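Why SEC63 domain-containing protein? Reviewers of the renewal asked for a concrete example.
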Amino acid sequence: MSLQNKAKVKLDFQAPSEAGEKLYTLYFMSDSYLGYDQEYSLSVDVEESGTEDHMEE
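Here is what the prediction returned.
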């Protein structure tokens, strides 16, 4: 197996219940290759739900 510089992945996660900008940090860690761990920061803008089904009273 060879190491690749790029890969596409899809991350599914539960959106926070509160609207606003949320900051996340992704950690990619290798248990096989020393020094290949990576850290990425990303910002997600969570918008208000458009339906009343998802809103708390």
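The radius of gyration is 17 Å. This is the kind of structural detail the renewal will allow us to pursue systematically.
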